């Protein structure tokens, strides 16, 4: 024999609904609000008496009505719960974030459960929304993703210059070579190194030598486009891959960079020092069988610049 219903249990249930740290909203099939717990009051700034009888869309105009109505109607029709998660939609309603993570989230991230409520006759005539504050979880995940992305980025970069490291840069060159073979887009490569860098290091020390390498890298990044691939090839040698750039455009780029580096002023004690670079330029062509042949062509042009007096740009001859 079933236990007799005790009306006091309803009061206990209402106390629980008011005290739990999730939002609870009960509304009828016209989306008019019947229940509005203290979580909703605290975060919306609206009391239960202020929202009673108003529709959810009136109180929260930011809710996308067509999307939300479809979610609710599907849940009611199937008699099952429906969910929204913050990864797909950061929040259902715009509540400020009061989590102790100042500056990392202005608005509350939310997971939401849509729960059809059946009357004693078995008809789903009300719907309950349960809104969970998952801001801490979301922010922690975003921070972890950001940290992982930064670590991945660091793994692709040279530690001294911030340019692409040789391994990753060569992967980019391989991909560009494949793209050229498929679409016949032009691409050029320039390789350069700092003139007489060993003597500079021996005379002024490795610390100043590192500073020179960083300054050369800074100017290289400054002149390179977002679509270019600038890397440290090794020691004082650098390489810049210029997609969609024919030989003459690469030569102009090389000359602008050469002149800018020659104009660098490097203070050291009571002196102002200067450095120059020698460059080689080569354009990708159909006779090349692999990406290493483009490197060899640009490198050969670089050594022509060195043999002809340095501080100049040479263009590879097409074989």
UniProtKB/TrEMBL annotation:
EC annotation from Swiss-Prot or TrEMBL: 2.7.7.65
Protein name per the record: diguanylate cyclase
SMART domains (alphabetical): GGDEF, PAS
SUPFAM superfamilies for the chain: Nucleotide cyclase, PYP-like sensor domain (PAS domain)
The PAS domain, residue ranges: 9-79
Residue ranges occupied by any GGDEF domain in the UniProt entry: 185-318
Signal peptide range: none
Originating organism: Halopseudomonas salina
Family matches, as PANTHER family: DIGUANYLATE CYCLASE DGCM-RELATED (PTHR45138:SF9), REGULATORY COMPONENTS OF SENSORY TRANSDUCTION SYSTEM (PTHR45138)
């Amino acid at each position: 024999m079933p236990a007799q219903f005790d009306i006091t249990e309803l009061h206990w249930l209402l106390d629980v609904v008011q005290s739990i740290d999730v939002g609870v909203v009960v509304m009828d099939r016209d989306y008019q609000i019947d229940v509005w717990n203290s979580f909703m009051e605290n975060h919306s700034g609206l009391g239960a008496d202020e929202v009673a009888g108003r529709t959810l869309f009136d109180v929260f105009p930011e809710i996308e009505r067509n999307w939300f109505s479809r979610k609710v109607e599907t849940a009611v029709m199937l008699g099952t719960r429906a969910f929204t998660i913050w990864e797909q939609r950061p929040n259902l309603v715009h509540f400020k974030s009061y989590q102790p993570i100042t500056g990392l989230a202005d608005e509350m991230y939310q997971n939401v459960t849509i729960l059809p409520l059946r009357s004693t006759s078995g008809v789903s005539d009300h719907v309950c929304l349960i809104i969970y504050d998952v801001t801490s979880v979301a922010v922690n995940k975003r921070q972890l993703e950001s940290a992982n992305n930064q670590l991945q980025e660091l793994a692709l970069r040279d530690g001294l210059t911030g340019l692409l490291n040789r391994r990753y840069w060569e992967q980019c060159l391989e991909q560009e070579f494949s793209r050229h073979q498929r679409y016949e887009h032009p691409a050029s490569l320039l390789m350069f190194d700092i003139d007489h860098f060993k003597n500079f290091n021996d005379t002024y020390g490795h610390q100043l030598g590192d500073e020179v390498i960083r300054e050369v890298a800074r100017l290289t990044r400054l002149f390179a486009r977002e679509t270019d691939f600038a890397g440290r090839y090794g020691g004082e040698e650098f390489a810049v891959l210029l997609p969609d750039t024919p030989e003459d455009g690469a030569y102009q780029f090389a000359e602008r960079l050469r002149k800018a580096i020659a104009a660098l002023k490097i203070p050291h004690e009571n002196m102002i020092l200067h450095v120059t670079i020698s460059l080689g330029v080569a354009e990708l062509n159909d006779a090349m069988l692999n990406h290493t042949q483009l490197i060899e062509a640009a490198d050969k042009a670089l050594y022509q610049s060195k043999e002809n007096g340095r501080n100049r740009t040479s263009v590879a001859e097409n074989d």
